[in-house]
């Protein structure tokens, strides 16, 4: 909070909401110093065993609170969040709240930047549901719910696809019939854009250079995973496509496959469209290959000599290497390869294996630096390496809050 010369209060808080189909993640930040005042999550919305986990962080932070009990819908979930925040004196009715920032997964071609939500904007997000059937409906519900609670506040949509809208046409288009593609808005949109934007900018900072001067390959390796090639701060290619299914091997998604596999499954294995959808999105990737999608468990199994886990790991690494090579060629000159998200930030063996053998490209990992555990952005390549290998923890909520605050106050987004 910043008191103005007249003693009035300037609103500096931003509530960030990330609504999933049965969950609501939230963070309250103070943009005066980008500090987090509270974080939490409502999960299993619509079930008997819904759970609210709330962690107050302001003023040293009180103990984490948790409660279980039925929460019928997103409206009830946000009410529960508001109650938790009120208990800490951080109520959503506070005049210090400047805006609510929403993660919206699919913004199509129209939304290239954070956008204040209007009825027309909501209608456009709705129009994109066919290309993001799992995500956009939940995001819309989250926005409507927040509007009902604070109709006077700006609601800002921050799109996962926005950062990738700078991709040149030759990277964004699939090589299919143009009329069919355009009629159904089939093209590569890319996702995790908020993370790729934040991490590529932080990497430039870590290198002590301006974002415009550096070329970076970002590897966002969480349960979902994507790579991007960022040239001078602008995305020029990314591995996810029309949907988040394309690209890297993920926790439960296959990533790249021959599309004819889907015809084959239907014609020969007698599977329905939905069966194939579930197979490729939920039962493939690491979980399909070895039964586990948690990299910690996979590494433990490999250490015990489990061959199935080893093969899954090798397939995962092989795909990652192919993308590093591809994006190296796309960029021509690379200043850093950066790892982020759950696997990228924590799994040293993944970083080591993905970079192994790429010395000719100027890429080397220093075993000691790579083994260090830290929450800070850091370089894990030796000084002599031509290209830096870095680990930069992602922070999508901070990026959403900064973009939201910048939009509603007219200030430039901070780096
Ligand atoms: P998402 O946001 O996509 O759900 P995260 O970025 O939180 O995912 O990443 C979750 C994944 O990170 C887990 O499934 C696990 O594979 C991996 N992970 C988390 N911690 C570790 C760790 N200490 N070592 C290895 N992998 C880890």
UniProtKB/TrEMBL annotation:
<comment type="function">
    <text>Catalyzes the formation of acetyl phosphate from acetate and ATP. Can also catalyze the reverse reaction.</text>
</comment>
<dbReference type="InterPro" id="IPR023865">
    <property type="entry name" value="Aliphatic_acid_kinase_CS"/>
</dbReference>
<keyword id="KW-0808">Transferase</keyword>
<feature type="binding site">
    <location>
        <begin position="220"/>
        <end position="224"/>
    </location>
    <ligand>
        <name>ATP</name>
    </ligand>
</feature>
<keyword id="KW-0418">Kinase</keyword>
<keyword id="KW-0460">Magnesium</keyword>
<dbReference type="InterPro" id="IPR043129">
    <property type="entry name" value="ATPase_NBD"/>
</dbReference>
<dbReference type="Pfam" id="PF00871">
    <property type="entry name" value="Acetate_kinase"/>
</dbReference>
<dbReference type="InterPro" id="IPR000890">
    <property type="entry name" value="Aliphatic_acid_kin_short-chain"/>
</dbReference>
<protein>
    <recommendedName>
        <fullName>Acetate kinase</fullName>
        <ecNumber>2.7.2.1</ecNumber>
    </recommendedName>
</protein>
<comment type="similarity">
    <text>Belongs to the acetokinase family.</text>
</comment>
<comment type="pathway">
    <text>Metabolic intermediate biosynthesis; acetyl-CoA biosynthesis; acetyl-CoA from acetate: step 1/2.</text>
</comment>
<feature type="binding site">
    <location>
        <begin position="342"/>
        <end position="346"/>
    </location>
    <ligand>
        <name>ATP</name>
    </ligand>
</feature>
<feature type="binding site">
    <location>
        <begin position="294"/>
        <end position="296"/>
    </location>
    <ligand>
        <name>ATP</name>
    </ligand>
</feature>
<feature type="binding site">
    <location>
        <position position="18"/>
    </location>
    <ligand>
        <name>Mg(2+)</name>
    </ligand>
</feature>
<feature type="binding site">
    <location>
        <position position="103"/>
    </location>
    <ligand>
        <name>substrate</name>
    </ligand>
</feature>
<feature type="binding site">
    <location>
        <position position="396"/>
    </location>
    <ligand>
        <name>Mg(2+)</name>
    </ligand>
</feature>
<keyword id="KW-0963">Cytoplasm</keyword>
<comment type="subunit">
    <text>Homodimer.</text>
</comment>
<feature type="site" description="Transition state stabilizer">
    <location>
        <position position="253"/>
    </location>
</feature>
<keyword id="KW-0479">Metal-binding</keyword>
<feature type="active site" description="Proton donor/acceptor">
    <location>
        <position position="160"/>
    </location>
</feature>
<feature type="site" description="Transition state stabilizer">
    <location>
        <position position="192"/>
    </location>
</feature>
<keyword id="KW-0067">ATP-binding</keyword>
<dbReference type="InterPro" id="IPR004372">
    <property type="entry name" value="Ac/propionate_kinase"/>
</dbReference>
<dbReference type="GO" id="GO:0016301">
    <property type="term" value="F:kinase activity"/>
</dbReference>
<keyword id="KW-0547">Nucleotide-binding</keyword>
<feature type="binding site">
    <location>
        <position position="25"/>
    </location>
    <ligand>
        <name>ATP</name>
    </ligand>
</feature>
